[in-house]
């Protein structure tokens, strides 16, 4: 990557002990940051373009990353060594996820291919395609393994969610979840709910019936029309709305999602907001503002006290989940000086 590329945040992951924050950077680097001090511990380099995700394996011995450079990669966490470079994509690789036993890795991209890999050897086991069409967004934006690792759930550019049988490599269920592409997908900690998110609606699905149990609204025109910059707009339909990331708190009581509103004529940001809801009641608890550009990563601390939001603006903000107030900020631009 060129030296002047800013390290915007593409993804955030926390170690099990809650002490280490892993940042997937817009400059292609994976950064390990001490959560308490905000100090940079080390950096993994190898990708040549923007990173979207960097996630731990269940035992935290390995890490997987996905990038705009059309590869996914597997790393040894202890040594920082790149073990496997996984290719075969024609476009960006948007997501990666380890199976619960850490023996397989799934990755998906903008070219519609969902690939399953052998973690030990780096061999491609399967390549799955939900749809192949020049007229429909065939991207697979996010994915997650079921609790037993037998199924993969993927959110697709055509607004559907796919269920794949890992052994058979076949799509066993597909349903229309959103009017447009779903960019985020995550299970609740107890796997009783699956959350999907796309343009103004976060939906919760009961995993025993696969029925929608809640649809949580991000923002309404009444919330926005009095704000600066909205004077010439005629309603939400005149906005270009972009969904970011979603996350459950570790006790499953809260769910968060980020969204950006852009004036399509001016190309300027009208709002950048992150929302927090009570899962049981569906009540919106907080609307968090403070980032200048896309918030592409949200994660709760292990003790559920704080929500972390990571943005293209290179900042990671800590929000108090009792008050909704900003607690502290980590600047990747400052930490970069120590590299």
Short synopsis of the structure:
This protein has 339 residues and is mostly beta strands. It is built from two helices and 28 strands.
List the helices and strands and how they pair.
Blueprint: E1 9-14, E2 20-25, E3 30-34, E4 40-44, E5 51-56, E6 62-67, E7 72-76, E8 82-86, E9 93-98, E10 104-109, E11 113-118, E12 124-129, E13 140-145, E14 151-156, E15 160-165, E16 170-176, E17 184-187, E18 193-198, E19 201-206, E20 211-217, H1 221-224, E21 240-248, E22 254-263, E23 268-278, E24 284-289, E25 295-300, E26 306-311, E27 315-320, E28 326-331, H2 332-335
Antiparallel strand pairs: 1-2, 2-3, 3-4, 5-6, 6-7, 7-8, 9-10, 10-11, 11-12, 13-14, 14-15, 15-16, 17-18, 18-19, 19-20, 21-22, 22-23, 23-24, 25-26, 26-27, 27-28
Describe the structure.
By secondary structure, this protein is mainly beta. It has one domain: YVTN repeat-like/Quinoprotein amine dehydrogenase (Methylamine Dehydrogenase, Chain H). It is built from two helices and 28 strands. It has helices at 221-224, 332-335, and strands at 9-14, 20-25, 30-34, 40-44, 51-56, 62-67, 72-76, 82-86, 93-98, 104-109, 113-118, 124-129, 140-145, 151-156, 160-165, 170-176, 184-187, 193-198, 201-206, 211-217, 240-248, 254-263, 268-278, 284-289, 295-300, 306-311, 315-320, 326-331. The strands form seven sheets. It has a four-stranded antiparallel beta sheet, with no helix packed on it. The chain has a four-stranded antiparallel beta sheet with strand order 5-6-7-8, with no helix packed on it. The longest helix has 4 residues, at 221-224. The chain starts with 8 loop residues before the first strand and ends with a helix. The mean pLDDT is 91.
């Amino acid at each position: 990557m060129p030296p002047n590329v800013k390290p915007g945040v593409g993804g955030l992951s926390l170690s099990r002990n809650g002490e280490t924050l892993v940042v997937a950077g817009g400059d292609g680097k994976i950064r390990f940051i001490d959560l308490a001090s905000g100090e940079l511990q080390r950096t993994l380099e190898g990708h040549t373009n923007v990173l979207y995700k960097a996630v731990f394996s269940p035992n935290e011995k390995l890490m997987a990353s996905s990038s705009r450079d059309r590869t996914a990669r597997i790393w040894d966490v202890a040594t920082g060594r790149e073990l496997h470079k996984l290719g075969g994509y024609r476009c960006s690789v948007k997501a990666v996820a380890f199976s619960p036993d850490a023996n397989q890795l799934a990755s998906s991209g903008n070219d519609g291919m969902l690939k399953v890999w052998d973690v030990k050897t780096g061999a491609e086991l399967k390549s799955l395609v939900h749809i192949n069409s020049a007229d429909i967004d065939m991207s697979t934006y996010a994915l997650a393994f079921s609790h037993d690792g037998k199924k993969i759930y993927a959110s697709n550019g055509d607004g559907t969610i796919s269920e794949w049988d890992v052994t058979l490599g076949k799509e066993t269920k597909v349903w229309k979840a959103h009017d447009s592409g779903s960019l985020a997908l995550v299970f609740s900690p107890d796997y009783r709910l699956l959350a999907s998110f796309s343009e103004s609606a976060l939906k919760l699905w009961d995993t025993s019936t696969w029925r929608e149990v809640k649809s949580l609204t991000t923002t309404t025109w009444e919330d926005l029309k009095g704000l600066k910059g909205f004077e010439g707009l005629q309603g939400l339909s005149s906005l270009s709305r972009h969904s970011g990331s979603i996350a459950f708190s570790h006790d499953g009581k809260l769910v968060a999602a980020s969204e950006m509103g852009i004036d399509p004529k001016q190309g300027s940001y009208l709002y950048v907001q992150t929302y927090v809801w009570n899962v049981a009641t569906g009540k919106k608890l907080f609307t968090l503002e403070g980032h200048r550009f896309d918030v592409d990563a949200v994660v709760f601390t292990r003790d559920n006290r704080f929500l972390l939001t990571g943005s293209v603006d290179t900042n990671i903000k800590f929000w108090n989940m009792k008050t909704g107030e900003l607690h502290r900020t980590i600047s990747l631009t400052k930490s970069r000086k120590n590299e």
